[in-house]
Design a protein that fits this description.
The protein is α/β, with parallel strands linked by helices. Helix content is 33%, strand content 19%. It has 15 helices and 15 strands. The strands form five sheets. It has a three-stranded mixed beta sheet with strand order 2-1-15, covered by helices on one side. A three-stranded mixed beta sheet has the order 3-4-5, covered by helices on one side. Strand 6 and strand 7 form a beta hairpin. Helix 2 packs antiparallel against helix 14 and helix 14 runs antiparallel to helix 15. The protein starts with a strand and ends in a 7-residue tail after the last helix.
């Protein structure tokens, strides 16, 4: 039976705040401060536990091997000899944001009846551009069943940032959907990361019906304010689109195009005069998991919005959300989660997960979460993940050794030695 599975990236032992991501306001604001890799990973695990408690299907991905010695070798250097910028880029733990791992089209949307995944090239940022080989290997292992088709990345020069710039609307997860690819044109002082030609290529790879596929421009104002990915200003689930008034370059045209294909869509637009772009981006209101609570779970049924605690701490944002759920709309429940370590580097609850609609029986079971398996992961993290690290410490031999040992311990605990 097809269901939506959220695959969260386990936050790796090299998690640090090197400030490598122009256009990511949180990353820039916290650059050069000390991070807490252990606390970060435990926060992510707690979020996965909470999703299981809501009755949701949950999976996970392993941290990638860091530092990336193969990438440094391709640049003619090695970790001890590389300059500090390359060391930081090679040590980046940003693969934790699984929303950037790939773009996913479920089987009901594709002409061949397979679930398609295209790994993102992430070429806009040096520290992320070398993730895709490790991510591709992991996706091929997790989704090796014939029900899936895993594609290599779109080639250069067309930047692709994965599901963070992709929306899917449908009557139910197992029904044919409308897929919306959001691309950037210009971001003003910040770089645009998603190219329209990359989005078009992914749609072709996935054999999507052109009549149920849209390509929509993100608003320049959103990118220029720090919404470096569309999932910072919009999120969709089943027949609901939840977005900021300034999410899209031409919102009225976008909404009309969506309604022409899917008249039953419910569009919840947050007005700019109530929640500013700055408040939306600072709180990561839209970088939330909008999920359908299984029948019989939750006080009211319907959909829940899993938001970072920063949304609760922002008076304008939380006031609007509370008023929304008091109404008769589809979003019936607010679930704040503490992912402050991820938020400080520019990633909220939605950044940490990749949504895959599939039959769980077709996924390698080693990547499917249970409470007991999450407890095992938490135990390894508590024993082996570094407690604190500053950007100046990431090049120290002792830290490099600790990162390798911690990841190896987790792979051993989950019987995933193929990923060494």
């Amino acid at each position: 039976m097809l269901t939506e599975i959220n695959f969260d990236g386990i936050i790796g032992p090299s998690h640090n705040y090197a400030g490598l991501s122009p256009g990511n306001v949180a990353s820039a604001n916290n650059a050069r401060t000390a991070s807490q890799p252990r606390e970060a990973a435990l926060q992510g695990i707690a979020k996965m536990h909470a999703n299981l408690d809501l009755g949701l299907a949950q999976g996970f991905f392993m941290p990638l091997d860091r530092p990336d010695d193969r990438w440094l070798a391709s640049l003619g250097t090695n970790f001890p000899d590389a300059d500090p910028y390359l060391q930081a880029a090679a040590m980046s733990a940003s693969s934790m944001w699984a929303a950037n791992a790939a773009t996913v089209s479920p089987a009901p949307d594709s002409a061949d009846g397979k679930c398609h995944l295209t790994v993102a090239n992430l070429q806009a940022m040096a520290h992320r551009s070398h993730e895709w080989p490790g991510t591709l290997a992991q996706l091929k292992l997790a989704f090796a069943h014939d029900a899936f088709q895993v594609h290599p990345p779109v080639p250069s020069p067309f930047g692709d940032e994965g599901a963070a710039n992709h929306l899917r609307l449908c009557s139910s997860h197992d029904a044919p959907g409308l897929e919306i690819f959001v691309y950037g044109i210009t971001g003003g002082k910040y770089p645009v990361r998603q190219h329209i030609e990359a989005s078009r290529a992914v749609a072709r790879y996935h054999r999507l019906d052109p009549a149920r596929t849209l390509f929509v421009a993100q608003a320049d104002a959103a990118i220029g304010s720090g919404a470096f990915h569309n999932d910072v200003v919009a999120v969709a689930n089943e027949n609901v689109l939840f977005c900021h008034q300034l999410a899209f370059a031409d919102p009225e045209l976008t909404y009309a195009a969506i309604r022409a294909i899917m008249p039953e869509v419910e569009i919840i637009e947050v007005p700019r005069n109530i929640v500013s772009l700055d408040d939306a981006i600072a709180s990561y209101l839209f970088n939330a998991q909008l999920v359908t609570i299984p029948a019989g779970d939750g006080p009211d049924g319907g959909m829940a919005l899993i938001v970072p605690t920063e949304a609760r701490d922002n008076a304008a944002v939380w006031g609007w959300l509370e008023e929304m759920v008091r109404g008769n709309g589809p979003i019936r429940k607010l679930v704040p989660v503490d992912v402050r370590q991820s938020m400080a580097n520019g990633g909220g609850p939605a950044c940490l997960r990749l949504r895959v609609v599939a039959d769980p029986a077709t996924v390698d079971p080693r990547f499917i979460a249970t409470p007991e398996k999450l407890d095992t992961i938490a135990d390894v993290v508590a024993k082996t993940w570094p407690q604190s690290v500053s950007p100046d410490e990431i090049a120290e031999p002792g830290f490099v050794a600790a990162v390798h040992q911690a990841r190896s311990a987790l792979l051993d605990a989950l019987d995933l030695s193929e990923l060494v």
